[in-house]
Amino acid sequence: MLLPISAWLTRDDSASFDKHVGWANILALTIGAVGVILILVDKVERSSDLSSSRIDDLAGTVAKEALRQDSLLLAHLLSTDSLDSRAARGNFVKVRPRTSKGRPTKRVTKEFGEIVDFYITETKGRLVILGAPGTGKTVLTVLLTVGLLKRRQNGEPVPFLVSLPSWDPANQDFVEWLAEQIAIRFRIGRKIAARMVQDELILPVLDGLDEMDSSETAPHRSEQAVKGINDYIACTPDARIVVVCRSGPRYYERLSRTVRNADEITIQNLEPKKIIGYVRTHCPDERALDAWEPVFNALMERKPNPVLSALDTPWRLTAAVTLYLQGEDPRQLLPTDEELSGSGDYAARIKGLLMETYVIAKVLLHRKRLNAAVTSIRQLRHIASRLAVLEATGHGGKEIVLSQWWNAFASQSVVVFHVGLTFLVLQIPSLVIGYGPSAEQGILSFLGVLSGKITIWYFACKRAITRDKPVAFRLRSLRSPAQVVMSALSVVVSTVCGLLAGTAYGAMYGVGIGMTSAALMLLVAASYGPQRVDATHPLASLLNDRNFAIALGLTVGAFAFLYYIPLRGITTALMLALMCVMGSILASAYTRYLVTAFVGWIYGLPLRLARFLSWAQRAGFLRLSGAGYQFRHQELLEYLQRR
């Protein structure tokens, strides 16, 4: 009220009147913006209160996407090449305990194709899948997940396959972690994902409990994970869950507690008849069968059978057939006299022979030149050794996440390299464009520009040191209450900046300053909040970070250019603007990845790391796991690390 009255009283003094009117406009704009903020916040809060029907609809959408992704995973597991597409299928067995009347234990044996019916009709919804290395645990798990997704009806839980080693049970609640993984994979809000978990619309399928700890160390993480899972079961008595783990005294059996109220099935090793039938399918001619006859005879022996133990898993059997198809004599699979007498390690020799055959066959199938094949095998070994470094330093060790790959090297060296590169490249605009104070500007002007350059150097180098994760830049995040408030405030601040700049330097500068400051604040608002990794592709989060860095650099550069033109001229403005653009890009997590790829190349890794990992996934060595890669077989990883 005071400003309009004061303006009316000074209406005869045009300068004073214009001043009062200007302040009245700014105040009115601010009040209006605050009102818009309150309306938007109220609208967002109402929209965030999702109904059960809305959650059910979202669960249906998630189920469709999960079916698409897991079907592709299953196709890849079963169809890496023509031989794998007909890989041997095993059986699984459930042991029913002795009844109260003292009846003997009963074993229920099923084939892989019966897993969905078995889970629905013969379990309580909680299942632990156990098996020795290479027996097909992942294949059986994905078969179950895809089968349940295909049969899912509205309102039923969505099977969600996720890798357990990505969870840190000591520092994160199970439900929180599960909701985070759902949000990452399906690009939905964390609150929505958490609501789905709470409403029991998610059926967690947890793969890799045995991979949370080394078999040579105490199972601290595995124990904590089982405790977290059991706490979840206790809080949600009707919840369904599937856990996958290696069997044996070095894995599931060594845990002090097991999954609560869960049925357990164990994947059986292949029987001699299945092994022989598989070989006959792939080696049907008479000459081949004659070559395999000594192996068949050894398989049918009733005494302790080392040959059966060497060939009784699907991947080993596949490798054995591949050995013959490459022109080798299958009698190499038989123990020598020294090994039978105990002076040689038959199991270790066969394991190494089959794994070497598997690796060479896979590489030659996808690398036609011998030199390229040898190089690829060497690079796979280097990558496996770097995973051992990650595990030793407490940064995982099971997954290759590109944005965190710098931890696989001397991390301080990578950071120093990154900061040094940032500082050196930021000198280019000064060297190319140059700056020297004119006689009219003087030393104070020079010091002013120098302080601007030092400020850019400082913030770029500091960001290069601390930017260890990609920026979670998503325009959809502007719908949350916090981002709505920040966005509305950016309108107010940018308008004030534009009015002040327009008053001082003219309308054109005012509009430019206002628009660039608004864009800058919107970028900051869109990247504000918890960091979220994009799991649509292993490179997705880094590419998103790169795009954000470019957008931020261009916006800050435009702001600096418009700001310095009237103060220091076009040359200085252009130099500082280029420094802003380059500093933003150089200090990004994407540049950190490029620096890491170069450091890895020095250590013997491929320079184009992402491309090589994509090739390794197509070749069957790696599989996608959320935002990263995993070696397809734990035994493959262990073999490569030993070489």
TrEMBL record:
Stretch forming the signal peptide: none
Glycoprotein among keywords: no
Residue ranges of the TM segments: 20-41, 414-436, 442-461, 482-501, 507-528, 548-567, 573-603
Domain of life assignment: Bacteria
Keywords, alphabetical: Membrane, Transmembrane, Transmembrane helix
UniProt keyword annotation of Nucleotide-binding present: no
Ranges of residues in domain NACHT: 127-285
InterPro entries: NACHT_NTPase, P-loop_NTPase
Protein name: NACHT domain-containing protein
